[in-house]
Amino acid sequence: MIKQGSPILLSKRLKAIADMIPEGQRLADVGCDHGFLSIYLVQTGKIPGALAMDVRKGPLAAAALHVKEAGLEKQIETRLSDGLAAFCAGEAQTLVCAGMGGPLMQRILTAYPDKTESFQDFLLQPQSEIREFRSFLRENGYKIMEERILLEDGKYYFPTWVRRGEAPAEGELTEVFDRYGETLIRKKDPLLRQYLIQQEKVLNAIEEKLREAADPNDRSKQRMAEVTFEKKMLLKALELMEKSSESGAECLP
Q: Of 12, 172, 173, 252, which one is least surrounded by beta carbons within 10 A?
Protein backbone atom coordinates (compact mmCIF):
# COMPACT_ATOMS: atom_id res chain seq x y z
CA MET A 1 0.00 0.00 0.00
CA ILE A 2 1.23 3.50 -0.90
CA LYS A 3 1.16 6.03 1.93
CA GLN A 4 0.27 9.64 1.25
CA GLY A 5 2.77 12.34 2.19
CA SER A 6 6.10 10.77 1.23
CA PRO A 7 7.47 9.76 -2.19
CA ILE A 8 7.44 6.08 -3.07
CA LEU A 9 10.72 4.25 -3.60
CA LEU A 10 11.60 3.50 -7.20
CA SER A 11 13.81 0.79 -8.61
CA LYS A 12 17.24 1.96 -9.77
CA ARG A 13 16.05 1.73 -13.38
CA LEU A 14 12.95 3.87 -12.86
CA LYS A 15 14.84 6.34 -10.65
CA ALA A 16 17.33 6.93 -13.47
CA ILE A 17 14.46 7.69 -15.84
CA ALA A 18 12.82 9.98 -13.28
CA ASP A 19 16.06 11.93 -12.83
CA MET A 20 16.31 12.57 -16.58
CA ILE A 21 12.76 13.84 -17.09
CA PRO A 22 12.52 17.63 -17.66
CA GLU A 23 10.65 19.51 -14.95
CA GLY A 24 7.27 21.15 -15.32
CA GLN A 25 5.92 19.12 -18.24
CA ARG A 26 2.89 16.88 -18.28
CA LEU A 27 3.87 13.24 -18.77
CA ALA A 28 2.48 10.38 -20.85
CA ASP A 29 3.82 7.03 -19.64
CA VAL A 30 3.13 4.33 -22.23
CA GLY A 31 3.44 0.89 -20.70
CA CYS A 32 3.11 2.37 -17.21
CA ASP A 33 2.86 -1.03 -15.50
CA HIS A 34 1.92 -0.20 -11.88
CA GLY A 35 2.15 3.58 -12.28
CA PHE A 36 5.02 4.11 -9.88
CA LEU A 37 6.97 6.50 -12.11
CA SER A 38 4.06 8.91 -12.59
CA ILE A 39 3.22 8.79 -8.88
CA TYR A 40 6.81 9.52 -7.84
CA LEU A 41 7.18 12.45 -10.26
CA VAL A 42 3.94 14.10 -9.09
CA GLN A 43 4.73 13.43 -5.43
CA THR A 44 8.12 15.13 -5.76
CA GLY A 45 6.64 18.07 -7.67
CA LYS A 46 8.76 17.49 -10.77
CA ILE A 47 5.71 17.32 -13.05
CA PRO A 48 2.19 18.75 -12.66
CA GLY A 49 0.35 15.66 -13.86
CA ALA A 50 0.48 12.51 -15.93
CA LEU A 51 -1.33 10.05 -18.14
CA ALA A 52 -0.46 6.50 -17.08
CA MET A 53 -1.33 4.20 -19.98
CA ASP A 54 -1.05 0.47 -20.51
CA VAL A 55 -2.52 -2.07 -22.93
CA ARG A 56 -2.93 -4.63 -20.14
CA LYS A 57 -5.98 -4.35 -17.88
CA GLY A 58 -4.35 -6.01 -14.87
CA PRO A 59 -1.36 -3.69 -14.45
CA LEU A 60 -3.54 -0.68 -15.30
CA ALA A 61 -6.00 -1.62 -12.53
CA ALA A 62 -3.04 -1.88 -10.14
CA ALA A 63 -1.83 1.54 -11.29
CA ALA A 64 -5.28 3.06 -10.69
CA LEU A 65 -5.30 1.58 -7.17
CA HIS A 66 -1.84 2.97 -6.42
CA VAL A 67 -2.84 6.41 -7.72
CA LYS A 68 -5.90 6.34 -5.43
CA GLU A 69 -3.84 5.23 -2.44
CA ALA A 70 -1.47 8.16 -3.08
CA GLY A 71 -4.42 10.57 -3.29
CA LEU A 72 -3.43 11.73 -6.78
CA GLU A 73 -6.57 11.00 -8.81
CA LYS A 74 -6.79 14.65 -9.87
CA GLN A 75 -3.21 14.78 -11.16
CA ILE A 76 -2.83 11.29 -12.68
CA GLU A 77 -5.25 9.70 -15.10
CA THR A 78 -4.99 6.00 -15.94
CA ARG A 79 -6.04 5.03 -19.44
CA LEU A 80 -6.28 1.74 -21.32
CA SER A 81 -4.33 2.22 -24.53
CA ASP A 82 -2.36 0.22 -27.07
CA GLY A 83 0.64 2.50 -27.41
CA LEU A 84 -0.58 6.02 -28.23
CA ALA A 85 -3.94 4.87 -29.64
CA ALA A 86 -5.97 6.50 -26.83
CA PHE A 87 -3.71 9.55 -26.53
CA CYS A 88 -4.68 12.92 -28.02
CA ALA A 89 -1.95 15.20 -29.33
CA GLY A 90 -1.21 18.00 -26.88
CA GLU A 91 -2.25 16.16 -23.72
CA ALA A 92 1.37 15.84 -22.60
CA GLN A 93 4.79 17.21 -23.53
CA THR A 94 7.01 14.32 -22.37
CA LEU A 95 6.65 10.71 -23.49
CA VAL A 96 8.07 7.79 -21.54
CA CYS A 97 8.44 4.33 -23.07
CA ALA A 98 10.40 1.96 -20.88
CA GLY A 99 10.63 -1.71 -20.05
CA MET A 100 9.68 -3.09 -23.47
CA GLY A 101 11.51 -4.44 -26.48
CA GLY A 102 13.11 -2.11 -29.00
CA PRO A 103 10.91 -3.26 -31.95
CA LEU A 104 7.72 -2.62 -29.95
CA MET A 105 8.99 0.81 -28.97
CA GLN A 106 9.69 1.62 -32.61
CA ARG A 107 6.13 0.59 -33.49
CA ILE A 108 4.73 2.89 -30.80
CA LEU A 109 6.80 5.84 -32.03
CA THR A 110 5.81 5.37 -35.68
CA ALA A 111 2.16 4.27 -35.45
CA TYR A 112 0.74 7.81 -34.97
CA PRO A 113 3.21 10.36 -36.38
CA ASP A 114 1.03 13.38 -35.54
CA LYS A 115 0.81 12.30 -31.91
CA THR A 116 4.49 11.44 -31.63
CA GLU A 117 5.53 14.78 -33.12
CA SER A 118 3.46 16.64 -30.52
CA PHE A 119 5.90 15.65 -27.76
CA GLN A 120 8.87 17.81 -26.86
CA ASP A 121 10.88 15.25 -24.91
CA PHE A 122 11.17 11.46 -24.99
CA LEU A 123 12.53 9.19 -22.26
CA LEU A 124 13.16 5.81 -23.84
CA GLN A 125 14.61 2.63 -22.39
CA PRO A 126 14.52 -0.39 -24.73
CA GLN A 127 15.03 -3.84 -23.23
CA SER A 128 16.33 -5.47 -26.41
CA GLU A 129 17.79 -4.72 -29.87
CA ILE A 130 19.49 -1.65 -28.43
CA ARG A 131 21.89 -1.17 -31.33
CA GLU A 132 19.00 -1.32 -33.80
CA PHE A 133 17.02 1.12 -31.67
CA ARG A 134 19.82 3.69 -31.57
CA SER A 135 20.06 3.35 -35.35
CA PHE A 136 16.30 3.86 -35.63
CA LEU A 137 16.52 7.07 -33.60
CA ARG A 138 19.36 8.41 -35.73
CA GLU A 139 17.57 7.61 -38.98
CA ASN A 140 14.19 9.04 -37.90
CA GLY A 141 15.03 12.53 -36.75
CA TYR A 142 15.74 11.96 -33.06
CA LYS A 143 18.75 13.48 -31.33
CA ILE A 144 20.11 11.78 -28.21
CA MET A 145 20.54 14.46 -25.55
CA GLU A 146 21.73 12.15 -22.77
CA GLU A 147 22.18 8.42 -22.28
CA ARG A 148 22.99 6.55 -19.11
CA ILE A 149 23.95 3.00 -18.29
CA LEU A 150 23.07 1.23 -15.06
CA LEU A 151 23.24 -2.26 -13.65
CA GLU A 152 20.34 -3.71 -11.69
CA ASP A 153 19.77 -7.34 -10.74
CA GLY A 154 22.54 -8.45 -13.08
CA LYS A 155 21.12 -6.69 -16.16
CA TYR A 156 22.36 -3.56 -17.91
CA TYR A 157 19.89 -0.82 -18.84
CA PHE A 158 20.32 2.18 -21.14
CA PRO A 159 17.77 4.94 -20.33
CA THR A 160 17.95 7.65 -22.97
CA TRP A 161 16.62 11.20 -23.23
CA VAL A 162 15.97 12.30 -26.81
CA ARG A 163 14.36 15.18 -28.66
CA ARG A 164 13.25 15.69 -32.23
CA GLY A 165 16.10 17.30 -34.12
CA GLU A 166 18.95 16.77 -36.50
CA ALA A 167 20.91 13.68 -35.53
CA PRO A 168 24.67 13.52 -36.13
CA ALA A 169 25.70 12.74 -39.70
CA GLU A 170 26.95 9.25 -40.41
CA GLY A 171 30.71 8.78 -40.20
CA GLU A 172 33.35 6.17 -39.60
CA LEU A 173 32.28 5.78 -35.96
CA THR A 174 28.52 5.50 -36.60
CA GLU A 175 28.43 1.73 -36.16
CA VAL A 176 30.41 1.94 -32.90
CA PHE A 177 28.12 4.66 -31.55
CA ASP A 178 24.99 2.73 -32.56
CA ARG A 179 26.25 -0.33 -30.72
CA TYR A 180 27.52 1.25 -27.51
CA GLY A 181 26.21 4.80 -27.23
CA GLU A 182 28.01 7.94 -28.35
CA THR A 183 27.36 9.98 -25.22
CA LEU A 184 28.50 7.10 -22.99
CA ILE A 185 31.73 6.71 -24.95
CA ARG A 186 32.39 10.45 -25.00
CA LYS A 187 32.02 10.79 -21.22
CA LYS A 188 34.12 7.65 -20.62
CA ASP A 189 31.44 6.08 -18.46
CA PRO A 190 33.16 3.56 -16.16
CA LEU A 191 30.14 1.25 -16.15
CA LEU A 192 30.18 1.17 -19.95
CA ARG A 193 33.83 0.14 -19.77
CA GLN A 194 32.85 -2.67 -17.40
CA TYR A 195 30.05 -3.70 -19.75
CA LEU A 196 32.40 -3.76 -22.75
CA ILE A 197 34.99 -5.86 -20.93
CA GLN A 198 32.30 -8.36 -19.93
CA GLN A 199 30.99 -8.49 -23.49
CA GLU A 200 34.50 -9.07 -24.79
CA LYS A 201 34.79 -12.14 -22.55
CA VAL A 202 31.46 -13.43 -23.87
CA LEU A 203 32.58 -12.96 -27.48
CA ASN A 204 35.93 -14.64 -26.78
CA ALA A 205 34.09 -17.68 -25.39
CA ILE A 206 31.80 -17.86 -28.44
CA GLU A 207 34.78 -17.47 -30.74
CA GLU A 208 36.60 -20.34 -29.00
CA LYS A 209 33.60 -22.69 -29.32
CA LEU A 210 33.24 -21.89 -33.01
CA ARG A 211 36.94 -22.59 -33.58
CA GLU A 212 36.60 -25.96 -31.86
CA ALA A 213 33.80 -27.07 -34.19
CA ALA A 214 35.00 -30.29 -35.85
CA ASP A 215 33.20 -29.64 -39.12
CA PRO A 216 32.17 -25.97 -39.38
CA ASN A 217 29.14 -25.38 -41.60
CA ASP A 218 28.07 -22.25 -43.43
CA ARG A 219 26.05 -21.06 -40.45
CA SER A 220 28.96 -21.37 -38.03
CA LYS A 221 31.24 -19.56 -40.49
CA GLN A 222 28.68 -16.76 -40.75
CA ARG A 223 28.43 -16.59 -36.97
CA MET A 224 32.21 -16.41 -36.68
CA ALA A 225 32.23 -13.46 -39.09
CA GLU A 226 29.54 -11.73 -37.01
CA VAL A 227 31.43 -12.29 -33.76
CA THR A 228 34.67 -11.06 -35.31
CA PHE A 229 33.01 -7.86 -36.50
CA GLU A 230 31.26 -7.25 -33.18
CA LYS A 231 34.55 -7.75 -31.35
CA LYS A 232 36.22 -5.26 -33.68
CA MET A 233 33.55 -2.65 -32.89
CA LEU A 234 33.78 -3.36 -29.15
CA LEU A 235 37.56 -2.99 -29.11
CA LYS A 236 37.23 0.26 -31.08
CA ALA A 237 34.87 1.61 -28.41
CA LEU A 238 37.35 0.68 -25.68
CA GLU A 239 40.17 2.26 -27.67
CA LEU A 240 38.24 5.53 -28.03
CA MET A 241 37.54 5.63 -24.30
CA GLU A 242 41.16 4.87 -23.41
CA LYS A 243 42.54 7.51 -25.79
CA SER A 244 40.23 10.10 -24.35
CA SER A 245 41.19 9.11 -20.80
CA GLU A 246 44.92 9.29 -21.55
CA SER A 247 44.73 12.69 -23.19
CA GLY A 248 42.41 14.12 -20.57
CA ALA A 249 40.48 15.88 -23.30
CA GLU A 250 37.84 15.22 -25.91
CA CYS A 251 39.47 13.34 -28.77
CA LEU A 252 36.52 12.06 -30.76
CA PRO A 253 35.40 13.69 -34.02
A: 172
